Amino acid sequence: MVMEEKPKKLLILYASETGNAIDAAERLGREAERRGCPVLLLSVDDFDPSSLPDQEIVIFVVSTTGQGDNPDSIKVFWKFLLQRNLTQNWLSRVNYAVFGLGDSGYQKYNFVAKKLDKRLSDLGATAVVERGLGDDQHSSGYEGALDPWMSTLWKALYQKDPKLFPKGPELMTSNMSLMDQPKVQITYHDVVEGTSNFSSIPDVKLLEMQIESTRFILPGKLAGKYSPECFLKMVKNDPLSKAGSGKDVRHFEFEAVSSSIEYEVGDVVHILPGQDAAAVDAFIKRCNLNPESYIQVQVNDNKENEQSYDLRNTLKVPVRLKTFVELAMDVASASPRRYFFEVMSYFATAEHEKERLQYFASPEGRDDLYEYNQKERRTVLEVL
Ligand SMILES: Cc1cc2nc3c(=O)[nH]c(=O)nc-3n(C[C@H](O)[C@H](O)[C@H](O)COP(=O)(O)O)c2cc1C
């Protein structure tokens, strides 16, 4: 009997402060899977640094924040790597690649990627390719460097270990089955079914439950790992600076909604931004959905990452669709990412729209997409 060898998984670890590195890491993951290579994609704080020497190949995607500072999620990992007792050959079996996201307008340009690359190499790891540096100043943002870096990476990995890409390092034809698995699963409830679940719960408690439930699907530090102690209602939000002064300084006042609260110096308040109600309505209408319906959202997480999977799925009450869009989505301010156009291309029925969307999602269409999308600051609602 011939035993089929289990395909190797490519480990991709990311550290992000505002989401770009997650987007870049997911793109890498998708591209690897399209080449037949299964992937394990993790935030670096979900990875045990002591197991790093056992990894044959690791891809890091890390951004720089502050003044050359580490994103929060890589702090523990970085501290571990800096330990003096780690020897020069601690990572001698590890092959790695680093892609950094930064902005050359900052003095400490891509500092985190550069120092991570150096430290890995000092600890005996071997770089598969030279580190890639994405720059916000590039006319296509960090994607400008990511595209060519990725194609070099696939070739180098294939040379290192052809088993990673059983069908070669070139892209397989794109079709629907290669689309990412959905990140969340949504169950729709009709209005009566949704509200009857809550008839005995006071309004304030209900709103809290809905906010908690919505936050659970958000990535990174806003998600359930850092569940808030209590919710406050913002009752005042007055600008203190003059319009056009270049700064936006505000006076906020908050009121405890459920019970009185105690706080100390150093406690942190997260402000949950809402969206313009008219934009939320327009988005829901455009999608032919009922704003009053209730949805239940479940995260389809990496099975390997059981802990965060359980955590993020424990508090799942049905949420009013309108509340969900208001609190968890951004339909009317930020520009959609490139992947949005790719996904839309699978669903577009008009041939000319499909072609245009496919072009925007391709490396050749990248600069035109930037002109159309980011430069014009188009929103999801406008694109739809
Ligand atoms: C507050 C702030 C500070 C930043 N500081 C730096 C920096 O010191 N060096 C750098 O190269 N880029 C810096 N950047 C640019 C980011 O690294 C870049 O926008 C990156 O794409 C962000 O990735 P992320 O969303 O995954 O955190 C900074 C960005 C922000 C918003």
What report would you give on this structure?
GO terms for molecular function: FMN binding; oxidoreductase activity, acting on NAD(P)H. Keywords: Cytoplasm, FAD, Flavoprotein, FMN, NADP, Oxidoreductase. The chain has helices at residues 20-34, 75-81, 111-122, 143-160, 191-196, 203-215, 277-286, 306-314, 321-328, 338-347, 351-361, 366-375, 380-383; strands at residues 10-15, 39-43, 57-63, 95-102, 126-127, 132-135, 184-189, 232-239, 250-256, 294-299, 319-320. The termini are far apart. It is built from 13 helices and eleven strands. The protein has 384 residues and is an alpha/beta fold. Strands 1, 2, 3, 4, 5 and 6 form a six-stranded parallel sheet that branches. A three-stranded antiparallel sheet has the order 7-10-11. The structure holds flavin mononucleotide. Flavin mononucleotide binds next to helix 1 and strand 4. Residues 16-21, 63-68, 71, 101-103, 106, 108-111, 136, 142 line the site of flavin mononucleotide.
